[in-house]
Amino acid sequence: MRVDVLTIFPDYLAPLRLSLIGRAIDEGRIDVRVHDLRDWTTDRHRTVDDSPYGGGAGMLMRPEPWGAALDAVLGEEPDVRVVVPTPSGEPFTQALAHELAAQPRLVFVCGRYEGIDQRVLDEVGERARVTEVSLGDYVLNGGEVAVLVVVEAVARLVPGVIGNATSLVHESFADGLLEGPAYTKPSVWRERAVPDVLLSGHHGQIARWQRDEALRRTSARRPDLVAALVPATLDRRDLEVLEACGWRPTADGARLERSAAPVAD
Ligand code: SAM
Q: Fewer Cβ atoms within 10 Å of its own Cβ: the N or the C terminal residue of the chain?
């Protein structure tokens, strides 16, 4: 996979060279190229911003440097996905991370100031697929932090980047649930013991316990995720655990809904 990042702060992307992503870059699994948008300016001050038409506080990024930079970086290649972090984008999710991980080329566009002249996105949208993504309902100073998040979430899904691929199968969101609690040695710490079942060596019972805990935690912390589950994909024990948490299938069986206050167990 090739990843290009366009920014006025190239140094901001330095952490990509660390840890697992850094190793993936060294091993040639991911090719990351960070470009300074100011290299495509034409004036002495290397200006990238100007005041917005219609007034308003703050400055906007001018279209000319962006147009020239995108022309150079996109080239004539097909199958380039342009990713634009913005608070008004679609929420970034694990599902979108999987979708982006399947792309051969990603180009990230980092906004600053009050954002980018809309014509840049409209124009590039005519020659590439553009996805505007939001990290959440808050406002950052620039797109660089968002790009670090998105690239890390995407790159770890590229085959070979995570040594043990099964760890991807059991983590949060893989099956629409949060991951439950996890424990390591020692088995007793400050008088707190690890749940017995995890020491039992019984793989079936351990897997069931982990699934039960994932269902309970998801119900408590992210009821929106439980409401998105399809009952037909759940087994009888799943439904029992969810019932104890206050969920029941809807009349048509298509979804789950809150039935009552959770039953304590
Ligand atoms: N005026 C914009 C608005 O109200 O939507 C906010 C601009 S923000 C100060 C500058 C840049 O930070 C944006 O262009 C975007 O690249 C990035 N950014 C800010 N919040 C973000 C978020 N929640 N998700 C993704 N990117 C964000």
A: C
